[in-house]
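#lab-general

N.A. 3:47 PM
ok so I finally got the sequence cleaned up, no stray characters, all 159 residues accounted for. can someone with queue access submit it? mine expired

B.Y. 3:52 PM
send it over

N.A. 3:53 PM
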Amino acid sequence: MAVQGVDGRSGESARNLAFINYALLFSAIFFAGVPALIAAIIAYSQRDEAPPTIGSHYSFQIRIFWVAFVIALVAGLCFLGAVVSIAGEIFQVTRLEGWRMPDQVQVKLSDVTVDRTLIVLFAGTGLFSAIGGLWLVFAPALGFIRLASAQGMGHSARS
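B.Y. 4:20 PM
back already:
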């Protein structure tokens, strides 16, 4: 039951490629996001050529990629902020000790303070990482199920 696409390609091959894209998006949590980038490139290149129902899935895959990218960016910024905060605290402690040579640095953990900002930054890193992971598991699963049911993605149940 192959449906002809706009450029003569069968709708079945576009559907299979959309299935592969959902698998790439799902596997992105295991391979540092590289498969998601590949899936987004494929979705951008195939979105206009695919039949409307499959095209809605490609648009949804692009949306999955960009939402995951923004969540990962926020988690990365929280982590970077925590690292800078720790480095600043260590610098302050070593400066107080009269640091002259790198091999003479002795940091006493009793002198290091863990403030509210550091806790919030680490909590934000964990929270946004968890949200991004859940997004990359459940969003592609939803799209995969709708694609397997021959339903499009969008506001209408008839898509």
